[in-house]
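Hey, I was hoping to borrow your eyes for a little while. I've been staring at a protein lately and its backbone has me curious. You're getting the sequence in one-letter code plus the fold written as tokens. Would you mind checking whether the tokens look sensible for this chain? Here's the protein in full, and shout if anything looks odd to you:
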Amino acid sequence: MKITRLSLWHVPLTSHAAYYMAEGKTCDTVETVVLALDTDSGLTGWGEVCPIPHYLPAYARGVAPALADLAPVLLGADPVGPEALMARADAYLPGHVYAKSALDIALWDLCGQVAGLPLYALLGGRRQADMPLYHSITCVAPEEMARIAREAQAEGITQFQVKLGASGDWQTDVERLTRVRETVGPGPLVYGDWNCGATSLAATRVGRAVAHLDIMLEQPCATLADCARVRAATGLPMKLDELVHDTASLLEAHRLGIMDALALKLSKFGGLSPLRRARDLCLHLGPQMCIECTWGSDIVTAAALHLGAATDPARLLNVCDLSGYVAPRLAPEAPTRRNGRIAPPEGPGLGIIPDRAALGAPDLTLE
């Protein structure tokens, strides 16, 4: 089997409600990049990557040039055995891991289809029927965030990510965390996420003010050293996200003792191949894991769910139904949340088929 055509689309994804984070980061309408790899066997592998503006060193419009540059490596190549072809791609074009994330997902999709197996079977075997979801609460007025938490809890959600820092004052962040914790009651997991947007002083003041409430902090500061200061000063457990993106950063965070939990995201690491290796390292290092991606629709959601389903349930903190936050959906039959949980697709490969007709004419075709 050989890759005969690469097609790429830019698709605007609109959040059901404007999504606010610290330092002016906003998800309202964000462009996702959809990739299709057609083969001479008639099979098609699908990939997706959706960088959030101002979030990580990734740019949606940078994906097409990177993949066009890789065309001599990809076209005519055998896609079965994703890591072998990705190694050739890395040697030909170092870096640009976010662009390669969509490519790696598409290769795994093809590999699973050839094997006639869902990806979770190839990523370690299914360890659980379905997985817990968290619900991410946009950083708005505290009473509105409490309302969002109440509605999500009524749908079965037991883990709540409370976005912080959008208003620029630490006192309102204290109120946000307090109101959400009071609303959901004792037991559910509540954690406050600054997305690197707090100083160590501000995050410490917030953490000390809510330390009696059973709260976890997520990625308060822009450096691991500052995050370590916050954890030491507050005594609160910490989840990392933006600052853990490869083996070196995982090992450094572990050395500093600040990795109680972490977000493993496809686009940060470069797809399923490196994310599976990161997952396996974390099984050794000890943190609980959220397996997801930065943003996106059904394709990245399905890829993350397969890896999550193949992970030890005791070590999987949660997953995210990214496609549930945005419109349009790319694959009509893709999984949706049910009673606070979600299951991976059952078909071979990713187990979903995006609606190619709805995507329209591709923005890039290489063959």
Q: What stands out?
A: The chain has two domains: 3-116, 122-342. The chain has a mean pLDDT of 97. The radius of gyration is 20 Å. The longest helix spans residues 97-115.
